[in-house]
Amino acid sequence: MSNPPRVTSRPQAGADGSAQDPSARAALARISSSRISLGRVFRAEGTNFYLLLGTTVFLVGFGLVMVLSSSSVESYLENQGFFGSFLKQSAFALFGIPMMLLVSRLPISFWKWIAPFAMIGSSFLQALVVFTPLGVEVGGNKNWIDLGFVQFQPSELIKVSLVIWLGLIVSRKEDLLDDWKQGLAPILITSGAAIGLVLLGDDLGTTFVLAAMLMGGLFFAGVRLRMLGMLVLAGAVLFGIMAVTSPSRVTRLMTFAGGCEDVAKQMNECWQSTHGDFALANGGILGAGLGNSKAKWSWLPAAHNDYIFAIIGEELGLLGAIVVLLLFVVLAIAFVRIMNSSEDTFIRVATATTMSWMIGQAFMNMGIVLGVFPVFGVPLPLISAGGTALLTTLIGIGIVLSFARHTPEEREALGIPARRGLLGARRPSSRPHESS
User: 141: which strand partners?
Assistant: First the structure.
C-alpha cells in the first residue's frame, strides 16, 4: 500500500513577493527601522551648521600655520626644536576638533541639565586658583591651576559654563527681565560671582571678555537698554576701584593714557606695544612673506600668543589682516543665522553669549595690537597658541553646532513654530517647547 504524498505547508507570498510569515515580517520591520535610524544619524546638516563648522576649521588650520611661523625661533631657543610649540598646538587641535564634533551631537536637554553643575564646578576650580597654593601665577596673572598631572586655566572653563548657564537662567526668568529683584538679581549674582573670582586673580583680559559675554547675552535676551546702561556704569565704577588697588593695572592704564612717545617708556612699559607697531609697519600692504617676520626673533613678547595678529600683519600684510577680520565677520554671521533660526530662548541666549565671547575677544585682541585698548592678556580665538583656550573655544562652538543641528524640518516635526524673531527683541511670554 503506497503512502499518501506528504504535504508541506509554505508561507504564501504576497502580491509584492514578500513572505507573510509573522517572524519574517518582524525581521523586515527591524531592518527597515534600522535603515531609517542610520539615515537620521548620517543625514545632511543645514547650511548654518556647515558655515560655522567650515569657518572654525579654517581658522584653526590657519592658526596652526601662524603658530609654526611665529613660535619657531622661541621654541628653538627653549630647546624644544623649531616645531615645539607647533606640535603641542597641533596635538590640542587634533583632539579638540573631534571633541567639538562629538559635543555637537549632544541634545539640548543635556546642556540644560548640566549648566548648573558646570557653573559650580568651574567657579570652584577658580576659587582654588585664587585662595589655595594650587594657583600658579604666569605673567602677573594668577589664572592657572596645577593639579600635579595637569595644568590649565579654570577661567576658560567659566566661559563655557557661562554660555549654557546664562541661557538656562534667562530662559527660566524670561518674563521677569524687567524686574531688578526677581529677574536680573539672580542672574547678576551668580554670573558676577564667577567673574569676580577671575578678577581676583588679576586676569583683567578674561574679566573683560566675561563681562562682554554677560552684557551680550542680556542684550539679545531683550533686557532694556536703560538697565544695561546702568549695569555698564556700575561695572566701570567697580573696575576703577579694582584698578587703583593693583600697581600693575595702574601702570598699564597710565602707560596707555600717557602714550609711548618717550624713549624710556619704549624701552620698558611700551616695549611690547611699540614692537607690535614695528611689526605691522614692516608688513605694509602685501606683507614680508610667510615666515619672514623679524619681530619674532625675540623682539616681540608673546608673538605666538597675545600678539600673533602683529605677526599676521607683518608676514601677510594689510590684506592678510583684513582676511582674518573678515573670517571673524563670517563667524559672527553664522552665529546670527543660528540664533535667528530658533524660537527657543535658551538657544538664542546661549548662542548670543558665545558670539559675544568669540567675536568680542577677537576684536579686543586686534584692538590691543593696534593700540586701541590697553595691553592686557587676551589671545586671538582659534589662532593664538594655548591649549586650554583652544579646547574651550572648540567646545563652545560645538555647543552652538548642536543647536544648529535642529533644522526647521525637525522643529516642525516637534511642533515648534519656524518663524523668525528680531535680534534683541523681547521674547514671547509663552515658554518655548523644549527640544531634545
Answer: 138
